[in-house]
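quick one
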Amino acid sequence: MRAMSLPMIIVHGGAGNWKDERIPVGMEYVEKAARAGFGVFEKEGSALDAAEACTVFMESCGQLNAGLGARANLDGVRELDAMIVDGETLSFGSVAAVCDIQNPVSLARYIMEKTDYAFFAGNNANRIYQQMISEGYREEREPGVIKPHFEVFGADTVGCVAVDSKGNIAATSSTGGISKKLPGRVGDSPVMGAGAFANEICGATATGWGENIMRVTLTRMAVLYVEQGIDLQKAAEKAMDLFETKTGSEAGLVMADKDGRWSKATNAKAMPTSVIAEDLGNISSYTK
Ligand code: GLY
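structure w/ glycine:
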């Protein structure tokens, strides 16, 4: 557990069996994403603003498994899942299996903030997207063309946890899902308490095999451990121990609390991660 000053942001680019030559690329893009998110704080943005900006960067960079860089499903279609969570209000917005948009995290935020609902899937999520664009909530961005995806075996999701100067926490997750997924398959990333969770105390976002992350509600468990008085690093490790014991699978998670402490844990080969906090001056980055 590392104590930081506020505001702060912690970002990951997916846990998995990264090819060695892809790890520096992952590191480069999570560092850029952390800067994109932290830059919003410098303009008085909130935790939600920073988390959205950071995730939009990762979705738009085309180098990570989200947004433009997302894997295609077995039909050759990019089906995206994403979520944003507001720890202050315990609200979330999610989209699942949504196609032809570049930044599903912004649509998830629109759903959370501007509708009476929390979760939309498939074609009907695109109708909400059109509503979002026509209302001017966000500008339309090209969905991009599908390119053969670089190999990032198992490196499956991007996400971040941001804490603003008031101690409000936001968490995100965004993904194209697992390799060779069947059309319509949805993983953990848009599921509250599985792919991400945040409340007024702590936030967490996860990456890994979604079916297994949902079985143990990985991010909810990690935050619950903190609520029970366990320190942040031990909480991340305990949640990962539970995950590995129950599922025998690979995953990772990053966490941050209202005071800017943060932690991470993974049992995968690599999970490019980057942190920026007010008093850090420079970015801190980790491959695992
Ligand atoms: N963790 C992303 C997925 O399983 O879809």
